[in-house]
Structures are given as C-alpha cells and as structure tokens.
Amino acid sequence: AQSVTQLGSHVSVSEGALVLLRCNYSSSVPPYLFWYVQYPNQGLQLLLKYTSAATLVKGINGFEAEFKKSETSFHLTKPSAHMSDAAEYFCAVQNSGGSNYKLTFGKGTLLTVNP
Amino acid sequence: SQTIHQWPATLVQPVGSPLSLECTVEGTSNPNLYWYRQAAGRGLQLLFYSVGIGQISSEVPQNLSASRPQDRQFILSSKKLLLSDSGFYLCAWSGIGQGNTIYFGEGSWLTVV
Description:
heterodimer, A: mainly beta, six-stranded mixed sheet, five-stranded antiparallel sheet, about 0% helix
C-alpha cells in the first residue's frame, strides 16, 4: 500500500523567504510523485511531478522538488515566497505498477505568506 | 485542449434528500474518471474511479454511488443524504497510463442540513 505524510499542516513564511514544504512517501514499488496547489474554494492544480526521469523536478510558479529515494522524500521548495503563493499544497503518490492510476494524497500543508 | 466541468458549484440539501453531482470532460476520449471528497484537515479521499463506461470501482463503503453513463460523463449520487456527507467534492480525469497527471474540476460544495 502507498501512503504520503506531509510534515506540518501549517507553514508560515515571510515574503521573500525560502519556502520548504515536506513530503515523505511509502511505496512498495518505484513511485510517481506529484505536488498540487489549491487556492480557496477551487480545484487542485498540478505544480510538478516526478516520473523517474531527473530527480530534480521544476514546476510552475518557480517551485521545484527533489526526489530522494534513500530518504523516501519529495520536498517542495521555492527560493523566494510571494504573497500569491499562499494556498494549500498537497503531495501525492501513485504506484508505478498495477492496473489503475489512483493517487494517494497527503493531508495537505497550508502555506501562509506574511508581508 | 481538455476541459472538465463540474456542477453545481454549491448545494445545500436537507438530510434524507437525494443528491446528484455531474461532471463532464471535453477534448479527450476514454479518460479515467475519479470522484474525490475533501474534508477539513483530512486531505483528499478517493471515493470512486472508473476506467470505462459502466465500470465503477468504489474505494470506501459509504452512502454514495457513482455512474458513468457516457464515456466522458461521471455522476455522483445518493438516495438519502446524511450529515456526514457534507464536504467539498472534486471530479477529476486522467489519461490512460502510468504517471499521467490527474486534472481536477473546480469542485462542488455540499452542505447537508
């Protein structure tokens, strides 16, 4: 079975500061990993995904994430936070094997950006 | 380009009343379709997924059902709503194949009163 743990349900940073959102996964087979962002009362939008190519993945809005197999982690970072980054972020895992393509999500991390 | 539409956006229903949420996808054929529910502090829970017309898999036992009457139409239903059915419901689709991105609709807020 696959699972995702997002450390910290709420992260607060100052505008211009580094953003680090943590995600650890559990999977019995090589995983595909995703980060989604959700703005209030909206659906989820894909930020980036890892599908066994380069371990450092660049996404939209200046975000990137690094797949570290030894640490079973896929942390999301952005060098300088903007006010518009305030949202909830979800990490998700999909097994690379099997006959369906379900995503298992973490519980989310709410990012607050202070001026 | 592909788009996904979900409606209604907001719904307030009394306990015991029926429910129907609809979702359609445009610009693609034979998508995988999903219904997720989001409750505060609990992330997203997969309720149903479908790999083809009439093929529905349920992830958790519950008061809800899903149907796929057409290739790009996915419906979430209930005969009698419970208070615990309140939440934010998200329809989503993906292409066939591993590593494909799942794309989400804008969601439907359901409040059962």
